Amino acid sequence: MNGKIGAWIAVGLWALVLSASAQGPVGRIVTVDLNKVFNDYYKTPIAQAKLKETVDSYTKEQDDMMANYKKAIDELNTLREEQEKSEYTAEVREQKRKAVAEKLAETQKLQRDIEEYRASHQKILQEQTQRMRQTILKEINDVISKEAQDQGYQLVLDKSGNTLNGVPAVVYSQDSMEITSDIIKILNKNQPKTTETPKPAEKK
Question: Would you say the pTM of this structure is higher than 0.70?
Answer without folding.
Answer: no
